[in-house]
Design goal:
The complex is a heterodimer.
Chain A: H1 24-31, H2 40-53, H3 66-73, H4 77-89, E1 93-96, E2 102-105, H5 113-122, H6 125-149, H7 152-166, H8 171-188, H9 192-210, H10 219-235, H11 238-266
Antiparallel strand pairs in A: 1-2
Chain B: H1 3-36, H2 53-69, E1 75-80, E2 92-97, E3 103-105, H3 124-132, E4 136-142, E5 150-160, E6 163-173, H4 174-183, E7 192-195, E8 201-204, E9 223-226, E10 235-238
Antiparallel strand pairs in B: 1-2, 1-6, 2-3, 4-5, 5-6, 7-8, 7-10, 9-10
Helix pairs in contact in B: 1-2
Classes of the chains: A mainly alpha, B alpha+beta.
Amino acid sequence: MSSEPSGLDPAHPPTAPVRVIADRTSLRDHIYRALPEIDRAEAITNRLRDSMALGLLVEGDRLPSELEMADSFGVSPTTVRDALAVLRAEGLVDTRRGRHGGTFVVSLPAVATDAMRQRLAALSVVELRDMGDHRAAVSSASARLAASRAVEGDLTRFRRLLDAFISAPDAAAMARADSRIWLELAVMAQSRRLLAVQLQLQLEMGELLWAPIGSPRDRGTALDPLLQLAEAIERRDAEAAALATSRRISADTFHMIDQKLTLALHGDQEDESHDRP
Amino acid sequence: MTDLDDVRSLSESLAADFDDLYTDLERMAEAVRSALAPTDPASTVHEVGPFSDEQLMVIHDHAVGLLSRRTMADGAGLIFNADRIAIAEQLIQWQVRSETGGFEPYGFVYDEDSTEYYDFMRLPWFETPRLTGTPTLAGPYLDYLGVDDYVLTATVPIVSGAVFIGVAGADIQVSDLERIMLSRCRGLRVPVALVTAEDRIVCSNSAHYLPGDRLPQESEAGQRMVLPTRVPTLAVHWGGAQAR
């Protein structure tokens, strides 16, 4: 299909960080949608921080006004102010006064390994397995549709995202790049609904998968099925695309459960190496 | 200790927990049965209830007592036979752990026309004790009509004369059982999986065994050690070449 050189060629110069999301408006709606009652300020902090961790909000982005956010989150302006104060204290956002003022993203969060460890300890194996099943169902359906719907421009963008993943300098950047790949797959499937679900899944597990704790997820074994996925989409081979996707996600799920079990069974030992399936 | 010794001690310690749970369930069933049973053994109960507030409080105390003693259980109580209960609102007397560490009653929908109507008469945790007259451990299953969790349910029948009145039961969340099992797997050198009678995996100390999956059919030459419980419960599968 595509005649231009493959973006996966190692000789290809690294691209600038990619910010391609087909429908930013719909993603914005998800970032600022209403929250459940409990711990709303904390939930807002987490939602904004996770969105930054996934690269949905990047340095220089201006957040909506406090009133706008209060409205879309369904909370009082004070609650929003409390949430922003936490992010400001963490050095992630900065508020400037004046005509061109507002609250801006000034840096992206580093992976908080302690928080990740706690999150992994709080999740049970059966929950991680279920999360993996959900990802596999949503993502292989997206892969199938992408194989039959993607056009050349989509593939070029997809390959650029793969490059960003290959050249990501650290765990946080890998998590961002990987999440963008999965979101882009739903974009290629032309499905708002699949995109919305994929976004929720990535907010839930994106950082956790790449957290540099124990023996971290290996980039090479994660990349291999993605390359096959790109090729399958290019060949318009829906079955091969779905197969590569579920192979990748099974290995992710294995990794997360293995990390969880290592934490639960060996406590503080951090540098165990494990067999991969 | 050999691996076999390790596996045996794991399975004995889990069995002790299940035995304790069933002991409490039997005690609760007996308390209800004797409170309801007619003094004349020749007569049979045709209808149970309506229960007074005092009687409901006795049931409540048993359920809460069980939950405070058996940390494995997440909910406990009585479910009466819908064909025998005098007033439908008293059909289910169920207590669950609350967010704050206490206990609270769990509400159920009794309106037969509602889509959320809880019709349990055909579910294994109710039907098996009703048909066989013996205690059972059902699941793991998604209790989407009840407490909306992934649980195992332990039940014992309550029978008065020849009449099946209902069951005394307790829910065990798979996540909780997993936590308990893992806390006893530290130092274990072999991968083990806790499995049901149908070889469905409930939890494991290895990521090669996924909860909800069934063991591969040719069972990779593993060994099986049935938990030495009074009531048939689960088994430990171990020593296989690891699933997949």
